[in-house]
Each structure stands twice: as structure tokens, then as C-alpha cells.
Design goal:
The complex is a heterodimer.
Chain A: E1 4-17, E2 20-33, E3 37-41, H1 48-56, E4 63-68, E5 75-78, H2 90-100, H3 106-118, H4 134-146, E6 152-156, H5 164-180, E7 184-188, H6 192-198, E8 201-205, E9 210-217, H7 226-229, H8 233-246
Parallel strand pairs in A: 2-9, 3-7, 3-8, 5-6, 6-7
Antiparallel strand pairs in A: 1-2, 1-4, 8-9
Helix pairs in contact in A: 2-3, 2-4, 4-5, 6-8
Chain B: H1 6-42, H2 48-51, H3 54-66, H4 69-101, H5 103-118, H6 125-132, H7 136-160, H8 164-172, H9 177-188, H10 190-214, H11 220-229, H12 233-262
Helix pairs in contact in B: 3-12, 4-5, 4-7, 4-10, 4-11, 5-7, 6-7, 7-10, 8-9, 10-11, 10-12, 11-12
Classes of the chains: A alpha/beta, B mainly alpha.
């Protein structure tokens, strides 16, 4: 059994408004293990992004506990939009987090260059974001997140701004890079197929105010990369179960 | 060395042709207008005492130039405009920065900014003369009143509309407000800042001329006021013509600055 890196227990979040209080998250509890790829799915507006914002410290929780089982855990947050700065070249974009945190050392810079070279961006290091395709931009965004040596990666609908084909290809890339670098990842997505094909476990949330409905350990007889996993026979079983959990009505 | 395809060469030719055509018509319009004006004045269709003529303007310009007053009038107006422009830009930038830093201050100030910006400043002319005195200070004050509020509003709106995703990204790295300002807000508002400079130079110019019309003994505004008082329409239109040129030059300088920064 891998070590527990994060424990979330009875997390709640309420938003205050002049008209009253809005209960966004009612009761969320789950654990995250080291080097695990965890996906969180739930109906639209159920508070998935709120959950990541709270974990990353961008928003405060209303109640419950978030316990990191490691000292000085560094969190890397990857947003839905790549948000690359058009006025900076690719290398400077990737060094942004290091500059902000005052960790721009020669070895960190070399690590970033190594990542760019390893993951197919060697010829674009000094180019500007407008010369990159959507998929490449998102890869740069991932390297920018990895540059700060995060213990946990928070992926907030990281692929949803891309077209379907790029999404599929990048899900493979992203999965490969995260596993290769030995990172723990928490990904929220509205795409069930993406979650099942990429994750080791899936947390299913109910509609707002959200609680955890189910947690699935994704086990496949021939589990490999995300595109391949979509062809596994267990894939559709998981899809059906989670779809039922989500209880979608239009 | 790269070679262009015939299609690309044709495309470039077409673009050059279009550029020449635009320039031709731009010049043709002004030449046609000046010829029509000159012809009408010589044939007595229009009264030159009331509407002057291109040749009259040239004569006035030469005589002003020969007695040395033309350059000094231009210089004083330029000096007042540039001084107002720099002051309004600095004040506008500082105030917009404070408003961006504090949402509460921005909310408090908002109605005052709107009122002060929409108030016709010329109505304050007599008051400004009483408060500041009949000197260059009144002119600068008038120009500042006209250009500063619009500068504050433009820059602040630009700052406020900075892409939330950029800010969220920096916050996720633990950035402080100062870092967000320097690394995102300023660079992402490059176009807003340049456009504000362009508006500001025009506003400062309008303010200075308005101030010179109210109180001055030098400058192009003074020439217009003096010309109208002594019914010297040649002098008035000469000053207006130079104003147009000067205004274009100032706008052109900011555009050049924009190109330089882009490089």
C-alpha cells in the first residue's frame, strides 16, 4: 500500500451572498496516495473546481479538515486555460513559478530545459506562445506547473479547452509525463471517459451541495496508456456505473 | 535566399498598388480642397476677409516666421502640452494603481471620477483664473483637469479587466499583489497604456489650447484669440493649421514610441 499524502475529511464550503448563504460543498471526505492519479467527476456546477481552489489555497474552506501527510507540501495548479503569457517566450513562461517563489536557481532552470527537451518542445524554447498549437501550449502549461517541483498536481479541467483529437493525444502525453516524473495528481473533469482512461481511482460527487457518492478503484486487465485503456473491456462497465451515479437529467 | 512564388509577387504588387492609391487620394483631397479654396477666393466667390485663403495663410506664416514669433508660439504651446501630458500620465498612472490595489478606495472614488470626467471643464475657466492666477499655471491646470480623469479611468479600467486566469495562475504560485501587478497587470495592459498615451496627448493639447484661449500672452491659442479680436482671419486660420500639424506630430511621436517599444 502506498503512503497517504493527503487526507480530506468532512470538507464543507458555503458562499455568502446578500440574499443568503449558498451551500456549495456539504461533506467531502477522501484520501490521496503518493504517486496516485485521482480523478474527481461530478455533475456540472457541483463544486469540483471549488474543491481544487480550496486545496490550492485560493479559497478558504468553511469547515472540515485538509491534512497533508508530508511537511511543506508543494502544490502545482494547472488551469483549464493554458494562460501562457504572450509577452514571454516559452522558457520564461515555464520559469514563472520559480521566479515568483524565488527559486530560480541554475539547476531548476536546467530541469525546466530538460523537461522541455524531453517532451517535444526543444525547438520552441525561445519561441513565443502564439507559434504553438493548442496541445503544445497545454504541454508547456504542464511543464510550468512541474517546474516548481510540486508534490501534488491539481489539474482543473486541464484538457477541456482543447478539440477532441488533441484532447485524446494530450491525455496520453499528460498521463505519461505525470507518471514518468513520479507525481501525485488530482484531476477534475466532466469527461467520464477521460477520468476512467487516465485515473487510478475516481471520486464521484453528487450535484450541489456535493457529497461523495462513490469512489472507484479503476482496475483493468490490460491497463496501459489512456488511449489504449479506452479499448479495455472494463472501460464501459465503469462508464455505465459512474453514469448511473451521476444521475444526469436534462 | 528565399524566392517568392508568382502568386506571392502578385499579392505584394497588389498591396503596393493599394498603398499608392490610398496615398494619392489622401494628397489629392487636400490639394483639391486648397485649390478650390484659393480659386474661390481669387474669383471673389468667397470673402477672404471672413474666410481667408491658402496664399493668405502662407504669407501670414512667412511674416510670423520672419519676425521670430511663430517658433516661440509653437514652442510655448508644445512645452505646455508636453508638461501637462507627462503630469497627467504620472498622476493618472499612480491613481489608477492605487484604485487597482484597493477595491474599497475604487468604489468610494468611482462616482467622483465619473462626475469630474463628464463635467465640462471650460465652465471652470473663470474659477481657475481666480484660484491659480492669470499665468501659465492656469493653462497647465486646465489641461490637467481635462486629461487626468480620462487617463485615470482608462488605465484603471484596463488594470481591472486583466485576464482573471493570469491572476489566478500567479496566485496559485503564491504571488503577492505587487508581483501580480508587475508580472501580469502591467505587461498585459501594454496596449491600454499606449492607447491612453495617445488619448492623453490629444486631451492635453485640447486643454492647453482651451487654457491659452482663456488666459495667455503666448502660444497658438493666444494667436487664435488675438486674431479673432483684431478680426485677422488669416492669423486665426494659420494658427489652426499649425495646430493641426502639431497635433498630428504629437500623435505620430506616440505611435513611433509604440513601434520602438514593440521592437
Amino acid at each position: 500500500m502506498k503512503n497517504k499524502i493527503l487526507e480530506i475529511s468532512h470538507l464543507t464550503k458555503n458562499y455568502q451572498d446578500l440574499d443568503g448563504e449558498i451551500e456549495a460543498v456539504r461533506d467531502i471526505s477522501f484520501d490521496v496516495y503518493e504517486k496516485e492519479f485521482l480523478a474527481i467527476v461530478g455533475p456540472s456546477g457541483c463544486g469540483k473546481s471549488t474543491l481544487l481552489s480550496i486545496l490550492s489555497g485560493l479559497e478558504n474552506k468553511s469547515g472540515g479538515n485538509i491534512i497533508f501527510h508530508k511537511e511543506n507540501v508543494i502544490l502545482g495548479y494547472m488551469l483549464q486555460k493554458d494562460s501562457l503569457f504572450p509577452w514571454l517566450n516559452i522558457l520564461d513562461n515555464c520559469l514563472l513559478g520559480l521566479k515568483i517563489t524565488n527559486n530560480l536557481t541554475e539547476s531548476n532552470k536546467n530541469y525546466v530545459i530538460h523537461l522541455l527537451e524531453t517532451y517535444g518542445l526543444k525547438d520552441f524554447i525561445y519561441k513565443y506562445p502564439n507559434s504553438l498549437s493548442g496541445g503544445m501550449r497545454q504541454r508547456v502549461a504542464l511543464i510550468r506547473t512541474l517546474a516548481i517541483h510540486p508534490d501534488i498536481l491539481l489539474l482543473d479541467e486541464a484538457l477541456s479547452a482543447l478539440d477532441y483529437q488533441t484532447r485524446l493525444a494530450l491525455s496520453d502525453d499528460l498521463h505519461h509525463i505525470i507518471k514518468q516524473e513520479g507525481k501525485t495528481a488530482i484531476m477534475i473533469t466532466h469527461d467520464l471517459a477521460e477520468a476512467i482512461s487516465m485515473a487510478d481511482r475516481i471520486v464521484v460527487l453528487t450535484k450541489r451541495p456535493s457529497v461523495v457518492k462513490n469512489i472507484y478503484k479503476v482496475e483493468m486487465t490490460d491497463k496501459k496508456n489512456p488511449i489504449h485503456n479506452r479499448k479495455c473491456k472494463e472501460f464501459s462497465d465503469y462508464y455505465e456505473k459512474i453514469w448511473r451515479d451521476l444521475d444526469v437529467h436534462i | 535566399m528565399s524566392t517568392y512564388s508568382k502568386e506571392h509577387i502578385d499579392f505584394l504588387k497588389e498591396k503596393r498598388k493599394e498603398k499608392r492609391l490610398i496615398l494619392f487620394f489622401q494628397i489629392a483631397i487636400i490639394v483639391f480642397f486648397l485649390l478650390l479654396w484659393e480659386g474661390a477666393s481669387r474669383l471673389g466667390v468667397i470673402n477672404t476677409f471672413l474666410s481667408s485663403s491658402p496664399s493668405g495663410i502662407i504669407k501670414t506664416m512667412i511674416s510670423l516666421f520672419q519676425d521670430g514669433s511663430l517658433i516661440s508660439h509653437i514652442l510655448i504651446t508644445t512645452y505646455e502640452t508636453l508638461l501637462s501630458f507627462f503630469l497627467a500620465t504620472i498622476i493618472g498612472f499612480i491613481v489608477a494603481t492605487i484604485l487597482w490595489y484597493s477595491k474599497i478606495v475604487a468604489k468610494i472614488i468611482d462616482p467622483y471620477l465619473t462626475i469630474l470626467n463628464s463635467l465640462p471643464k471650460v465652465a471652470l475657466g473663470p474659477l481657475i483664473i481666480i484660484w491659480v492666477g492669470a499665468s501659465i499655471h492656469s493653462i497647465i491646470f486646465m489641461a490637467l483637469l481635462i486629461s487626468t480623469f480620462i487617463t485615470i479611468i482608462n488605465i484603471y479600467n484596463g488594470f481591472r479587466e486583466t485576464d482573471e486566469n493570469y491572476i489566478r495562475l500567479l496566485k496559485s504560485f503564491g504571488a503577492k499583489k505587487r508581483q501580480i501587478f508587475l508580472k501580469v497587470v502591467i505587461p498585459s495592459n501594454y496596449h491600454t497604456l499606449i492607447n491612453t498615451l495617445k488619448i492623453n496627448i490629444s486631451m492635453s493639447f485640447i486643454g492647453v489650447i482651451m487654457g491659452e484661449l482663456l488666459v495667455s500672452k503666448q502660444g497658438l491659442g493666444y494667436l487664435i484669440m488675438y486674431g479673432s479680436q483684431v478680426f485677422n482671419i488669416n492669423l486665426v486660420i494659420t494658427a489652426v493649421f499649425i495646430l493641426g500639424l502639431l497635433s498630428y506630430l504629437m500623435y505620430f511621436s506616440i505611435s513611433k514610441l509604440e513601434c520602438l517599444i514593440k521592437k
